[in-house]
Amino acid sequence: MSKITDLIQASIDVKQQVLADENLLRVIQQSVDLITDAFKKGNRVYFCGNGGSAADAQHLAAEFSGRFYTDRKALPAEALHCNTSYLTAVGNDYSFDLIYARLIDGIGQAGDVLLGLSTSGNSTNIVRAFEKAKEKGMHTIGFTGLTGGQLKAVSDLLINIPSADTPRIQESHILAGHIICQLVEENIFG
């Protein structure tokens, strides 16, 4: 039982650090404002990640395109990894490092928002997607761990959770993502 309580406490400790970090809270609010503005202007929001972060990206995209709290119109958001035929073709024919950048090159528009989840901040396929998004005039929001890794340099906004422990970072990514989804929904639909 002590191991279980220790793990729960570790999660709480990271969330308390998030709660106490005024700069990080400000970045979460800026993310809300950026995404709200993009949706109001008719732009789209895209998500990407790898492994558990891909699952989190898909989860958060569904909160916008499905619903969060309110029975309302769908918002144009999607996770970029859901087409396995595309992923395996591009991964095989080009490189796994290009799976997201190539898709952003094909469908991204100026004013759209790309959110990338990478606990290290060093996932090459997400870094390259952010670089391509910047070329296209898109906005980028990185969800990372403590240092921000390489995503720090290519993110307009960086939600860098104050931890180096992957599960604790991912738990806080979902917390920040849910906050963003709720507040964007309230901003748009009341």
Automatic annotation (TrEMBL):
Its cofactor is Zn(2+). InterPro entries: GmhA/DiaA, Phosphoheptose_Isoase, SIS_dom, SIS_dom_sf, SIS_GmhA/DiaA_subfam. Residues 35-190 form the SIS domain. Pathway: Carbohydrate biosynthesis; D-glycero-D-manno-heptose 7-phosphate biosynthesis; D-glycero-alpha-D-manno-heptose 7-phosphate and D-glycero-beta-D-manno-heptose 7-phosphate from sedoheptulose 7-phosphate: step 1/1. SUPFAM superfamilies: SIS domain (SSF53697). Keywords: Carbohydrate metabolism, Cytoplasm, Isomerase, Metal-binding, Zinc. It catalyses: 2 D-sedoheptulose 7-phosphate = D-glycero-alpha-D-manno-heptose 7-phosphate + D-glycero-beta-D-manno-heptose 7-phosphate. It is found in: Cytoplasm. Its EC number is 5.3.1.28. It is an enzyme of class 5 (isomerase). Belongs to the SIS family. GmhA subfamily. The reaction produces a racemic mixture of D-glycero-alpha-D-manno-heptose 7-phosphate and D-glycero-beta-D-manno-heptose 7-phosphate. Catalyzes the isomerization of sedoheptulose 7-phosphate in D-glycero-D-manno-heptose 7-phosphate. This is Phosphoheptose isomerase.
